[in-house]
Amino acid sequence: MFGGQGLNLGIGDAMNLGWKLAATVRGWAPAGLLDTYTAERHPIGAWVLDWTRAQIAIMRPDRHARALRRVLADLAGTTDGATYLATRISGVWQGYDLPGDHPLTGRTAPDLELSDGTRLADRLHGGKALLLNAKADGYEDRLTHATAEGAPRMLVRPDGYVAWASDTEDADLAPWLGGPTCSR
């Protein structure tokens, strides 16, 4: 169980740092973008380390660890306990403290089916951000565009996290992109 968490942590770290390094090298990263890596990824690394230590502790062959295993098994046998454990281990709970008040902002983007029949996650494979249900001209080097019926307008970072989202037509995305006018 904890081996997979470490693997996922490393992949998440690489994705987070990778797109930020690329943006910096290409000259379009805002000031301080690389500095956000620590704030975003270190808390997740600390959480994985704590959970790994807890998993190792309950594997010890002593009576205290056996008692903890029984308690954990009892909790995992309940709907709430199983849901909690699955949510935590899957990483679905993880998010970043990004500006904005939409519930998707700072969260992993939902893997929506797009209007062309592809999936949102598949559109991120090229390493560009994805602008959903909106259009921004002049950013073809770093953005792809897509639509999904009934989904909010979203700017999804290359690492799959929502940088900006809005349910309204009149929300202005231009400040998030630093310039050109954006439209639906």
Annotation, overall tally of beta strands: 6
- SSE order, one letter for each helix or strand: HHHHEEEEEHE
Q: What is the typical, i.e. mean, pLDDT? A: 88
* Spatial shape: elongated
Enumerate how many helices there are, as a single number.
Answer: 5
Largest sheet: 4 strands, mixed
Which spans have pLDDT < 50 for at least 5 consecutive residues?
179-184
Give the C-alpha Rg: 20 Å
What is the topology, as strand order, of the major beta sheet?
Answer: 3-1-4-5
Helical content class:
40-55%
Alpha-beta content class: alpha+beta
The percentage of residues in β strands lies in 5-15%
How far apart are the first and last residues' alpha carbons, in Å? 43 Å
Write the SSE topology:
Layout: H1 2-26, H2 36-57, H3 63-76, H4 79-90, E1 129-132, E2 135-136, E3 143-146, E4 153-156, E5 162-166, H5 174-177, E6 182-183
Parallel strand pairs: 1-3
Antiparallel strand pairs: 1-4, 2-6, 4-5
Would you give an account of this structure?
The structure is a single chain. The protein contains 5 helices and 6 strands, in the order ααααβββββαβ. With 184 residues, it is α+β, with helices and mostly antiparallel strands. The strands form 2 sheets. Strands 3-1-4-5 form a 4-stranded mixed beta sheet, with no helix packed on it. A hairpin with a 5-residue loop joins strand 4 (153-156) and strand 5 (162-166). Helix 1 packs antiparallel against helix 2 (36-57). Mean pLDDT is 88; it is low at 179-184.
